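Our consortium's second objective concerns turning raw sequence data into structural hypotheses that experimental partners can test. To show how far this objective has progressed, the report includes one record in full. It was chosen at random from the queue rather than selected for favorable results. The single chain below, 123 residues long, was entered without modification.
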Amino acid sequence: QVQLVESGGGMVQAGGSLRLSCAASGSIFSINDMGWYRQAPGKQRELVASITSGGTTMCADSVKSRFTISRDNAKNTVYLQMNSLKPEDTDVYYCNAEGIYYIGSYYSDFGSWGQGTQVTVSS
């Protein structure tokens, strides 16, 4: 009922920047929290940053001074600005959103994931 489409991944040299975008579409009544996670092969998916509908943000300690999360509520889109990238930031990045969707007069909670976008940082 709610789809997330990510964009902006790619390959960059260490010290470079990338901006990820994630747009939600579908029968959305409201979106509460949106976030970015990352996962390396064989490892658990970890939270990178999150943002509430009111704009309260949190970032993992490993990225706190380098990454910034933001959102455009009118566009149902969340962004992740990644600066001073390091080789250890290489991962597949996933967008997540939680909120309420509707079908006609029926409303229910949703939690959706994007398909993932690869970020590769070369040394």
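The partners drew two points from this record. Residues 27 and 102 are 6 Å apart (CA to CA). The mean pLDDT is 97. Both points have been shared with the crystallography group to help prioritize constructs.
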